[in-house]
């Protein structure tokens, strides 16, 4: 593990390769899972305010769910997550003309309708953050539906932390990310010289 400030980064974040391949996975991470996408408390209010900008892109069922229970709920672990449709689909999904599942919030951002890109947990995926009292764990979440992303990442030789540069900077800042890059280079050199276990 690598510690930078109060974040502890799992080594596979700097060792493993990953590039999302939407043409293969079709955005399945937005429609599979036991609950919605994790949300930070302040994100709930932000999403509530931007609803008018994305409302027309949401499915009628998603609109019904939001009207009934809001944009988020607490899952069985007590974590705040996005509301879901049909027991699995995030309410903020829509499908493009190729049938690929995408985020209506991200679409609104790209169209200049909101400054909010999308929930940080979605932006950071496949990294998942787990907050403890004294530190935040930065872990790689392995999921079968991301097999194509691993294959493409291996083909291009792009590490997870490199693929996720933008969201990591968004979450932790430029200085933090630069420290991570330095640590990753040092670890790579140590590994090459047989100085790691």
Automatic annotation (TrEMBL):
<comment type="similarity">
    <text>Belongs to the Rv0495c family.</text>
</comment>
<dbReference type="Pfam" id="PF11307">
    <property type="entry name" value="DUF3109"/>
</dbReference>
<protein>
    <submittedName>
        <fullName>Uncharacterized protein DUF3109</fullName>
    </submittedName>
</protein>
<dbReference type="InterPro" id="IPR021458">
    <property type="entry name" value="Rv0495c"/>
</dbReference>
